[in-house]
Structure formats: structure tokens, C-alpha cells
Write a structure and sequence with these properties.
One of its GO terms (molecular function) is calcium ion binding. The chain contains 6 helices and no strands. α2 crosses α3.
Length: 129
């Protein structure tokens, strides 16, 4: 449902997915208990998803169309499950690297590009000690 919800936009401006890649009746379905925000973050990344919250539906549709073009690696006008998986992996990897850089900055208290045990303890448990 994620791919379909993001790719089939109101007004018919979405790109179709490859027919053989569509979900089949009885196949495992996407669990939607966490809501669309979870899907947006997985698909776009946390910061990008947040920026979409501020857009009008028309602006959102236009930006999603550009993202779909970036996901379509072989530029055939269709998105496959593999292309979607690769995209989500890239987005998640970027999020992890950005998060590690932020945490590193927060933990490396003396800014020597090393995190000593004392720095780690202070950054993690400092208010308890």
C-alpha cells in the first residue's frame, strides 16, 4: 500500500507500478497501524517527510513526482518492488549516517574526533552522575 498510496496521486498524475510487482490477493499486506507519517519517513527520510507536512497538495504532488523519477533507476516509467526497496534503503542509510554524525558531535565533548569513555558516560548519564 505504501507504493500505491505514494505513487497514485489524485488527478491521475502518479506513475504506475509494474504489473507483475503489484500485491496479489492473499499476499502479505502492509501493516498501517503506525499511520502514514511512518510511511513518509521510511520513504522520504525524517527531514524530507517533515518538509512535506508544510506543502500544499499541489506542491506535494509535484515534489513526489520528481522523487518517483529519481527512484525509477532504469527510467522505464515504471517502479518495481526492487527499485522501491533500493530507494528506501538509501533513504534509511542516509538517515543513519546523519544520526551518527549528530550523536558523535554530541558525545565528542572536547572535539578531538574521539569519544573517550568519560565523554560517553558524561553525554549518556551525566545528569545522573
Amino acid at each position: 500500500r505504501l507504493a500505491l498510496a505514494l505513487l497514485v496521486l489524485p488527478g491521475g498524475l502518479g506513475k504506475p507500478t509494474a504489473r507483475q510487482e503489484r500485491a496479489r490477493p492473499g499476499a502479505a499486506q502492509h501493516e498501517d497501524r503506525q499511520g502514514f507519517q511512518y510511511d513518509h519517513e521510511a520513504f522520504l527520510g525524517k527531514e524530507e517527510a517533515r518538509s512535506f507536512d508544510q506543502l500544499s497538495p499541489e506542491e506535494s504532488r509535484e515534489r513526489l513526482g520528481k522523487i518517483v523519477d529519481r527512484i525509477d533507476d532504469n527510467e522505464d516509467g515504471y517502479l518495481t518492488t526492487e527499485e522501491l526497496k533500493n530507494w528506501i534503503k538509501r533513504v534509511q542509510k542516509r538517515y543513519i549516517y546523519e544520526n551518527v554524525a549528530k550523536v558523535w558531535k554530541d558525545y565528542d565533548l572536547n572535539k578531538d574526533d574521539k569519544i573517550a569513555w568519560e565523554e560517553y558516560k558524561q553525554a549518556t548519564y551525566g545528569y545522573y552522575l
